[in-house]
Amino acid sequence: MKAISFLLLVTANFLFMTSSIAGVIFNNNGLSGGSRWDASEREVFGVGERSLAGGLRYSVQGGSFEAYRDMFSWNEQPTVNAFTYTVQSAFDVWTTVDPISGLGTNLRFVADLDTAVVGDFRGNGQINRAGAEIDLLAKTDAYFWNEGNTNRQGESWFSTLGSTVDLTSGTKNYAGSSAIIGADISLNSNPGAIYDIDLFFRLLTHEIGHALGFGDVDVFNTRFIDDNYDGTAASLNNSWASSVNVFNPAESPLKMYNVGNTPQADGVNILMESYGLGISATNPINNPIPLSNDEYGIRQFLYPFISVPEPSSMALLFLALLLLYTSKRRLLLNNNF
Ligand SMILES: [Zn+2]
Q: What keywords are assigned to this protein (predicted)?
């Protein structure tokens, strides 16, 4: 098999509060393709298991949440518990049920701090796929910032294999896609970049979106996936996750749009906006679940979820059928009398 590795990058810069755009994926051709983590267990030479199987394993530079916290400067330093909870929550919000469509997800994340992170720490450093599946790094010098930069910002890179993947919906060997096999998330740790816990959470949540294959909606604004964009901000806000063809996302009744600066309009507040991270009155910085309809839509597009009845309701159904059967039997028995 010929394995091709692509490098991709994106950045979120909180300081430029200029704008916003909808749902964007990487390495796609229209609705075809996209980069995803494989739903089925996949061994990658030299770095081990790389897939959603068993959850996506992440680690932090320094080997502990405390050590990672201490690499950043804080307005008010969070406790280790608060920081740990914040990092875990930044992953776990990606597993939340979409409140509009009711769709859940197969995505799961597992802290794997015993695996040491491996990053590229040269100036302009990019990706090293080794380490955990997702490595969280602190860098004073990265692709998008240099020593002394005080912007509170992050950048994420992932490495892919040109290969089919299995989808979370059960589709095998989905063509045109590429498999993400390692991601590095770096946050600016220059001493002048002073964080508070809410911004750290929001920024990290955004960067984790990149590690899952989400693009910046206001950078790749000609590649916006939506169902009904008509030039208005309102048409970007509606929920379309239920429209995704779970067995073949490329066949979904969706389109690619050029949304220009529309996402930067009032009332469009998308977490995956590079500029501003969607922070607004309707999606405030302390929002514990800052995902918008567009994030839930792209999540369903990349990692299609098939809802199944809850075991409890299945059991109730069975019980109801059993009762029905029993009462019918009693009736029959009664008739026999
Ligand atoms: Zn970004």
A: Membrane, Transmembrane, Transmembrane helix
Q: How many domains does one find in the chain?
A: 1
Does 326 fall in a domain?
Answer: no
* Residue 74 lies inside a defined structural domain of this protein: yes
Going from the C-alpha of 65 to that of each of 106, 131, 304, the distances in angstroms are 25, 16, 31
d(CA 268, CA 264): 7
Q: With 80 as the cut, is the pLDDT of residue 61 above it?
A: yes
320: in domain: no
Query: What distance in angstroms lies between residue 206's CA and the mean position of ligand 1's atoms?
Result: 6
| 52 CA distance to ligand 1 middle (Å) | 22
pLDDT tens by residue, 85-114: 999 999 999 999 999 999 999 999 999 999
Q: How far is the CA of 154 from the centre of ligand 1 (A)?
A: 8
Burial class (CB in 10 A: 0-12, 13-18, 19+), 283: buried
Does 11 have pLDDT greater than 90?
no
Which domain does 16 fall in, by range?
A: 7-302
The band of 68, judged by pLDDT with boundaries at 50, 70 and 90, is very high
